[in-house]
Write a structure and sequence with these properties.
The protein is an alpha+beta fold. The chain is built from 8 helices and 8 strands, in the order ααααββββαββαββαα. The strands form 2 sheets. It has a 5-stranded antiparallel sheet with strand order 4-3-2-1-5. β3 and β4 form a beta hairpin. α3 packs across α4. The longest helix has 46 residues. The N and C termini lie far apart (133 Å).
Amino acid sequence: MDEIKFELIWSLISSYSLKILGSIAILLIGKWLVAKISNLISKLIISSRLDETLSSFLLNIIKTLLMAFVIIAAIANLGVETSMFVAALGAIGLAIGMAFKDTFSNIGAGFLIIFFRPFKLKDHIEVAGVQGAVKEINMFSTVLRTTDHKTIIIPNGRIISSNIINFSKEGTRRVELVFSIDYKDDLKLAKEIILSLADENKNILKVPKPFVGVGSLGENSVNLTARFWCASSDFSDVQFAMLESVKLAFDAKGISIPLPQLSIRYQDKRQDEQF
C-alpha cells in the first residue's frame, strides 16, 4: 500500500515538475522570441518610413501584447484552464480598474494623442504650464525636455485636458519686441535702425517683411512695436540678437531709452501757517 502511494506521489511530482520546467522554458523562449519579433517589426517600421511618434507607440503596445500571450501560454501549460484564468483576470482587472482608473485614463489619452496628433516627437510645446521638446510618448505619459535639459514627465490625461500650444507645428514663428524711445528722439531714425538690423540678421525671414510701428504713446516714452518672422528653431536667437543689436545701435546714434520718471512736490508747512 505504501509502495503504491509512493509511486503515485512520485508520478505527480514528475508530471508537475515537467510542466513547471516546460512553463519556464516557454517564458524564456517566449521572451527571446518577443525580443526578436520586436526588432524585426522595428526594422519594418523604419523601412516603411512611418511617423516616429506613431511607430514608437505601436512598438510599445505590440511588445506588451506579445508578452501577455507568452505568460498565458506558460500558465496554460501547467494545466490551468485559460478560460477560467481569463475570467479571473477579468474580475481582477475590474477591481484594479476601479483602483487605477486614472492610470487607464492615461492610456486612453495616449491613444487620443497618437490618433489626433496635436504634436509629435521633437516638437516644442507648452502644456500643463510647462514648456519643452517632446522626447517620448508612451502609454501612460509624455516626456518633455526643457532647454536647460530638465526632464518633465506629464501624465497623458493632464495633456488631453489642457490647452496645448505647439510652437513647431507651422515651422515659423513671429518675434514681437517693444522698444521705447524718448519723445524728443528721431522717430523715423529709430524705425530705420531697427529695420536695417532686421535686414542684416540672416535668421530673420524676408517674407513676411519685418514691421516696425508706433504701438503706444506712454507717459514717458514712445513705444515702438517690432515684428519679425523666423524659423521656429531660431526664435530665441533672433530675440536675443535683436534686443542687443538695437540697444547698441540706439546708443551709437544718440537715441535714448527713457527711464520711468517720478515728480515729487514739496510744500513748506511754515509758509502755509503764515497765511
